[in-house]
Specification:
The protein folds into 3 domains: 110 residues, no CATH class; 144 residues, Endonuclease Chain A (Endonuclease, Chain A, 2-Layer Sandwich), CATH 3.30.870.10; 182 residues, Endonuclease, Chain A, CATH 3.30.870.10. It is 40% helix and 18% strand. The protein contains 16 helices and 21 strands. Helix 1 runs antiparallel to helix 2 and helix 4 packs parallel to helix 5. It is globular, with a radius of gyration of 24 Å. Its EC number is 2.7.8.-.
Length: 510
């Protein structure tokens, strides 16, 4: 385990862009609201300047242009902050030991969301800590998934102790369709949070069998500004379960009536890219609104559009460790985690390391990996095996294209691979619950943490490379020499999986 603390300045980004140590500097969805307020002032300015209906129509076009450029395209779904302490855990035993210690020290609030909460030694130890906290007056809330965690005797224990418990989608098809909550989150007193791929279950147990070695899995504990973002995601999920899908919480609040801490959205000393771009648009609006027409004005708008895009995309160099929390849901953050992967891989210059138990990404992510390999980036995939037959036979169908592009592939066999981690160019990493398959990227509720320039990135890189080296690698010549019936099984399994996922995701999986 490693701890570090970055500079206390906050850095925010709508996208994980230019990860050769670049982070753009903005947060438009939650917080300062620069884009929205500027939009209102711009609209009123344009309206008052137009002297006739035609000019008014053109002024509205200007406002729509500004909103399209600054509101929709660049609206942030997560933010990067510095000044966070990060601890990386490579096993459930270490994670739950630290979590129980935090729960025993809690004074106000404990919130946990998990896919699996198992009634084994680990689960009972954590449950006992939660009960102790509730009995001393701490508010304890737990979200479990209706399929991942069937009814347990522990539920009655929680009820008797005053622990609040809600179940996400109790049936296979429920109010939230086929989606599951696959997140593994904990927030304690708004001071500490954890996120990763580790369920609340014994590291050595899998479907009633004992594994030869502990599960290969990871999680991080966070302390600092990013904890608030984890808390917001939990509060939104808690409300959704009770009331159905709800809009995002208002800016600057953790839950209805609960404001964020004073420093949560404090502006960075150097200002915000979006704010600068919005000011530029407003200046242009005030100058152009009375005479917006076709001809020269249209050409001017074209130049303005290109200038805006260049301005908004121009990132600042990140000089301190930064952290972002990325939650995927089916409301407003449908592609957040996938886009984070795409941005990082798209900016890779030296190395991409991916480790994932269920590797069945859509076309966009596959294309990003192929393009990275083709431009000379060393791409290595560590893939889990021997859990689901359809994946064991279907995933190898993708190997031909990947191997042909120069991607190196290894299949982990030492024990169960459950970690969902990646490292890009040794300065960007992600740890979380999201698999690289249709269920995680398109359907389920997931949560990942992004790290930029943190010391833990090197520790995670070493772990991935170590596991890759001790795993059998796919030899291209032997792969291409597979018997015809194995090739047929690979194609059939892949086709079945793709058709089933398209049905479950209503065409969202590509």
């Amino acid at each position: 385990m490693v701890e570090s603390r970055g500079d206390p300045a906050a850095t925010r980004a709508p996208r994980a862009a230019s990860w050769s140590a670049h982070v753009s500097d903005t947060s438009t969805e939650r917080g300062n609201g620069a884009g929205n307020s500027a939009g209102s002032s711009a609209g009123s300015s344009a309206g008052s300047s137009a002297g006739d209906s035609a000019a008014g129509t053109d002024s509205q076009r200007v406002v729509r242009l500004r909103e399209a450029l600054l509101g929709r395209r660049y609206r942030s779904r997560y933010r990067f902050t510095s000044g966070n302490e990060v601890r990386l855990f490579g096993s459930g035993a270490d994670l739950f030991g630290a979590m129980i210690e935090r729960i025993d020290g809690a004074t106000r609030d404990v919130a946990i969301e998990t896919y699996i909460f198992c009634d084994d030694d680990i689960g009972r130890a954590l449950s006992a800590a939660l009960v102790r906290a509730a009995q001393r007056g701490v508010r304890v809330r737990i979200i479990t998934d209706g399929i991942g965690t069937p009814h347990l005797a522990l539920f009655e224990t929680w009820l008797a102790a005053g622990v609040e418990h809600r179940v996400y989608n109790p049936h296979i098809f429920g109010r939230f369709g086929f989606s599951r909550t696959h997140r593994k989150l904990a927030v304690i007193d708004d001071q500490y949070a954890s996120c990763g791929g580790i369920n609340i279950v014994d590291d050595l147990e899998q479907d009633g069998k004992t594994l030869p070695y502990p599960r290969w899995d990871f999680a991080v504990e966070l302390h600092g500004p990013v904890v608030v973002d984890v808390r917001v995601a939990f509060e939104q999920q808690w409300r959704r379960i009770r009331l159905g899908h709800r809009p995002p919480l208002p800016a600057g609040t953790l839950s209805p009536g609960v404001p964020a801490s004073a420093g949560y959205m404090a502006p960075h000393p150097t200002g915000h890219t979006i704010a600068r771009s919005t000011q530029m648009v407003d200046d242009a609006l005030r100058a152009l609104a009375p005479a917006v027409r076709s001809g020269p004005a249209a050409r001017l708008f074209t130049r303005l559009r290109e200038r805006l895009r260049a301005s908004v995309r121009d990132p600042r160099v990140a000089r301190v460790p930064c952290v972002a929390f990325v939650a995927r849901d089916n409301v407003v953050n449908r592609r957040a985690i996938e886009k984070a992967y795409l941005d990082a891989i798209g900016e890779a210059r030296k190395e991409v390391l991916l480790a994932n138990p269920y590797f069945m990404p859509g076309r966009r992510l596959r294309r990003a990996l192929l393009e990275a390999a083709q431009r000379g980036v060393a791409v290595k995939l560590l893939i889990g095996r021997k859990e689901f037959a359809v994946l064991d036979y279907g995933v190898p169908f993708l190997y031909h294209q990947l191997l042909s592009a120069g991607v190196q592939i290894a299949e982990y066999e030492k024990t169960m691979l459950h970690g969902k981690v990646a490292v890009v160019d040794s300065n960007w990493a992600t740890v979380g619950s999201s698999n690289l398959d249709a269920l995680s990227l398109v359907l389920n509720n997931e949560a990942n943490v992004l790290l930029v320039l943190h010391p833990q990135i090197q520790q995670l890189r070493d772990a991935i490379l170590g596991a890759f080296e001790e795993s059998p690698q796919i030899d291209r010549a032997r792969y291409e020499a597979r018997p015809w019936h194995v090739r047929a099984l690979n194609w059939l399994a892949w086709s079945f999986y793709r058709a089933a996922m398209k049905l479950l995701t209503v065409g969202g999986y590509d």
